Amino acid sequence: MSDRTETVRDNTNCKENKGISRRSYITASGAAVASLAGCLGGSGSDQITAAWVYDGEANDQGWVKAHDEGRKALEEENDWLTTRYQESVGASESERVIADFAEVSDIVFTISAIYEDATASVAEEYPDTRFENAFGLRTADNLARYTLKTHEARYCLGVAAGLLTESNQLGFISGFELPQVYREANAFALGAQSVNPDVTVDVSLVGAFIAPQECTSVVNSFAGNGIDVVTAHMNTPATVSAAASNEIWGTGSFYNQMDAGGDWYVSALQPGWGTYYQSRAEAVRDETWESQDFWAGMEEGVMGIGEFGPEVPEDVINEARSAESAISNGELDVWAGSKFEGENDEPGGFVETEMGSYVEGVSN
């Protein structure tokens, strides 16, 4: 329902070219939204406007694409909802963009921890607007945070990798030393070791989450050193593309990247952003929205693994799906038997915010 979606690509240029003030721009946008709401046949507060701030291109085939697909599904399924978004917003301009959206939206989702401080600042300025920040830690009466247990899906991908490898050497690529990166690298290793105890994992950090050239270079190096399965916590399909070029297995992140990986594609962790966004938009509409520390995964239906590549053997798929099912049913603890068994896995606890070392068999 594209007629209800507004893409704001560059507010600053728009205002400069048309010679209108920020307040005039917001007022005009608000009038347009009100007009659209009337056309939809809704009444008053039953019509909701939700906005998203993206840290990359909406069609990046990874992190942002997954969020945008969730946004699109939400709008297509709900005639009471209008959505808008702005892509490729840098941290330095984020406060302005968030504030612009706050003036004409009922709820604003900012999809990266780089927006944590800006979101909190704008939330103070606009107490009647709801805000939600992904993978940050700050909350307020009108600010919630949401983080997914991506490591659970990475564990399942590890199971597949442990069965596919012939060299027993796996590679993991990411940007920085962060708790989420440690969680995913460790879970990937533990999943692989659960079916192949001889597996080791080599971690390479490239200093950014959007770094296709660096990812390609690392995969080339990995392949030259005998690594035959790679995975990445990155916002780009470059890892699986480079893996295919080297004829080694590659697993994706956040979105189906089979087109890039071809016959050498394994699968990808896939968040259920649409499920989450649906519940939060409905809460705004029903006036039941409350701030929360959302830390959830497979048991809550917001995390999983996606479609498998065409050449992945059926027995490998079955083992990975079995792990996914066991985690979803609460029968499998990813950290069982590791040095992190029993650590606090509550929102804001050790597993989410403090993990800072690797399990046995993982090296950087």
Overall outline: globular
Radius of gyration (CA) equals 21 Å
- Integer tally of domains: 2
Strand order of the largest sheet: 1-3-2-4-5-6-12
At the first level of CATH, what is the class of the largest domain? Alpha Beta
Task: Please provide a written account of the structure.
With 364 residues, the protein is an alpha/beta fold. It is 42% helix and 18% strand. The protein contains 13 helices and 14 strands. It has a 7-stranded parallel beta sheet, sandwiched between helices. Helix 7 links the parallel strand 7 and strand 8. The radius of gyration is 21 Å and the shape is globular.
Topology:
Blueprint: E1 5-7, H1 11-18, H2 22-39, E2 48-53, H3 63-77, E3 81-86, H4 91-102, E4 107-110, H5 116-125, E5 130-134, E6 143-148, H6 150-164, E7 169-174, H7 179-195, E8 200-205, H8 212-224, E9 229-232, H9 238-245, E10 249-253, H10 258-261, E11 265-271, H11 273-285, E12 293-296, E13 303-305, H12 314-328, H13 350-353, E14 362-363
Parallel strand pairs: 1-3, 2-3, 2-4, 4-5, 5-6, 6-12, 7-8, 7-9, 8-14, 9-10, 10-11
Antiparallel strand pairs: 11-13
Fill in the keyword field for this structure.
364 residues; alpha/beta; Rossmann fold; 2 domains; 7-stranded parallel β-sheet; 7-stranded mixed β-sheet; 18% strand; globular
Short recap of the structure:
With 364 residues, the protein is of the alpha/beta class.
